[in-house]
Amino acid sequence: MTPQELRAFCLSFNAAVEDFPFSPEISVFKVQGKLFALSHLDARPLKVNLKCDPDDAIRLRGEHEGLVVPGWHMNKRHWNTVTADGGLPDQLVRELIEDSYDLVVAGLPRADRLRLDRP
């Protein structure tokens, strides 16, 4: 996955926005003000921090050693850092990004979730 593909995929979700609260180099993708993906898009290798169910996080780290690791500068129980530009199939990276978005949306207040469902 290229940096452009990563950015486009993250922004393809309903109400997703890109923000730069930490520095101009760090893209933070949010929904309703809540972070679901974080990446330094110019870094090599390309990595992205993603929210993950704690049990799935452990499983993924074991299955993809070195490519899925505990979230850098994040809560290690709920976040993974995923190497997105090699080693992992692009489809898996897309699924992990979508799972992260879905987890964040599920944690939003009901009124916010309902607003996301409207066309």
From TrEMBL:
InterPro entries the UniProt entry points to: YjbR, YjbR-like_sf, YjbR/MT2646/Rv2570-like
A GO MF label: DNA binding
Keywords tagged on the record: DNA-binding
Keyword Iron: no
Entry-linked SUPFAM superfamilies: YjbR-like
Pfam families according to UniProt: YjbR
Keyword Nucleotidyltransferase applies: no
Highest taxon above the source species: Bacteria
The protein, known as: Putative DNA-binding protein (MmcQ/YjbR family)
Source species of the chain: Streptomyces violarus
